[in-house]
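Journal club prep — side note

Before the paper discussion, L.F. wants everyone to see what a predicted structure for a comparable chain looks like in token form. Sequence:
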Amino acid sequence: MIEYAASQSNYLIIGLGSCNKCDLLENPFSAQEREQMIKESIDVPIPYEIRRIPDFGDPPKWIAWIRENISFDVFVTNSLNERRIFEEAGFKVMDSPFFDRDEYTASQVRKRIIEDGDWAALLPTGAVKVMSQIDGKGRIKRLVSQSQ
């Protein structure tokens, strides 16, 4: 999705959502760890920056924070909920093509880790490298056992 968005632009802002949440099964990695995974994984021919966006659990507050802190022309997403929120707030929204959406999801990666399956095949090599450095597999397994 990042590479697609870069192909449509001359400058890219990558929004790193829920940067204030980590060590949870649905969000096991810190913002810094996820930022490193992105940097190690992408190769885009244009300048880019990664901006951390906190999760407020409140769409109007979220949109207000984004308006105050990030300036952009087009929001790229595949989330129907995000599309609705941003369009209602007056932003131009563009879809990115799906790339085998049922297979390439964080949920599928976590499922394969839990089941000792081939999770690394679903991730870019840069993300696998960072996951190995931080024992991401062990962290996800620990979070699963804590949630049971």
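L.F.'s comment for the group: The chain has a mean pLDDT of 93. Keep this in mind when we get to the figures.
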